[in-house]
């Protein structure tokens, strides 16, 4: 399986289809509000992994119920629930997929293809059951579950090995030692500008607003973009840093994500000023 996954990651032949699909997704989902909602910005967590629990749970439950006598209606209801709920989960997944790196998109494309096969088989199963052909419906369900299982395996690789939509900045926190760290003199910090410093070799950005200083990890949680090279924008009355790579925006005072594609907040370190020196520590 490892060899197969590596081959898919390196399969440049998938890029023609992937690039076209990416343009189609980006052309369809033009509204930032819709994209943010599907990424899970409002939740502070990627939405797609949470949404897939519904179809996966319903389909696995249907597979169990199908083994019991006299449960045809319950199995049909579960297959229907799984099939309908798979559609918004797929929309959230495609929205995330369109912002991934190429190697991630290749795995994601095969993940989506396997799940699409699963969805079509479950739709066929639902149609067969509603027409009274429960034997055929059961067979199509088990085939669909096999295809969706393959898709889930690839989704796990995408999330846990390739780190798609996982926070890329949180691991940096583990490189910072305990205790307060001096990061500069307050008097030398320009107001309302980003300044990049290091704490234990970890890059952080400082933002001074009056005598308050926010200290935030520099590495973007989405795909490690340099937030220190980003721009500052006022969004909903809050100063935010906008990532130069894909435009994720984070509040400078608290780190909350306000625009995706990141669905994760950025890490802000508690800070204080002691004798004119700015200090920060781990939360
Ligand atoms: S790296 Fe993608 S938004 Fe920052």
TrEMBL record:
Every Rieske domain range: 181-280
Native source organism of the sequence: Micromonospora marina
Name the chain's protein: Ferredoxin subunit of nitrite reductase or a ring-hydroxylating dioxygenase
**Segment forming the signal sequence:** none
**GO molecular function terms attached to this record:** 2 iron, 2 sulfur cluster binding; dioxygenase activity; metal ion binding; monooxygenase activity; oxidoreductase activity, acting on paired donors, with incorporation or reduction of molecular oxygen
Residue spans making up a coiled coil are: none
Stored InterPro entries = DUF2231_TM (IPR019251), Rieske_2Fe-2S (IPR017941), Rieske_2Fe-2S_sf (IPR036922)
Q: Which UniProt keywords apply?
A: 2Fe-2S, Dioxygenase, Iron, Iron-sulfur, Metal-binding, Oxidoreductase
Look up the domain of life of the source. Answer: Bacteria
Task: State the taxonomy lineage.
Answer: Bacteria, Bacillati, Actinomycetota, Actinomycetes, Micromonosporales
Q: Which Pfam families match?
A: DUF2231, Rieske
Q: Which family, according to UniProt?
A: Belongs to the bacterial ring-hydroxylating dioxygenase ferredoxin component family.
CDD domains recorded: Rieske
Could you tell me which PANTHER family the record lists for this protein? FERREDOXIN-RELATED, RIESKE DOMAIN-CONTAINING PROTEIN
Cofactor(s) the protein requires to work = [2Fe-2S] cluster
């Amino acid at each position: 399986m490892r060899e197969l996954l590596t081959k898919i990651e390196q399969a440049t032949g998938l890029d023609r289809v992937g690039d076209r699909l990416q343009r189609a997704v980006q052309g369809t989902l033009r509204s930032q509000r819709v994209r943010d909602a599907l990424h899970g910005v409002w939740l502070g967590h990627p939405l797609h992994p949470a949404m897939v629990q519904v179809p996966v749970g319903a389909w696995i439950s249907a597979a169990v119920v199908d083994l019991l006598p006299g449960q045809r209606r319950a199995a049909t209801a579960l297959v229907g629930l799984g099939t309908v709920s798979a559609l918004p989960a797929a929309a959230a997944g495609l929205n995330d997929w369109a912002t991934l790196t190429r190697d991630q998109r290749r795995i994601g494309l095969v993940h989506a293809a396997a799940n699409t096969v699963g969805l079509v088989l479950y739709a066929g199963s639902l149609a067969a059951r509603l027409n009274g052909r429960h034997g055929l419906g059961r067979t199509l369900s088990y085939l669909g579950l096999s295809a969706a299982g393959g898709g889930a395996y690839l989704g796990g690789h995408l999330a846990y090995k390739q780190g798609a939509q996982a926070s890329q900045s949180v691991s940096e926190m583990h490189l910072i030692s305990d205790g307060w760290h001096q990061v500069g003199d307050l008097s030398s910090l320009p107001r309302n500008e980003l300044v990049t410093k290091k704490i234990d070799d970890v890059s952080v950005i400082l933002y001074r607003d009056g005598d308050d200083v926010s200290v935030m990890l520099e590495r973007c949680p989405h795909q490690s973009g340099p937030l220190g090279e980003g721009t500052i924008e006022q969004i909903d009355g809050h100063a935010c840093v906008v990532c130069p790579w894909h435009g994720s925006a984070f509040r400078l005072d608290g780190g909350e994500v306000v625009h995706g594609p990141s669905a994760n907040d950025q890490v802000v370190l508690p800070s204080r000023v002691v004798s004119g020196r700015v200090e920060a520590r781990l939360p």
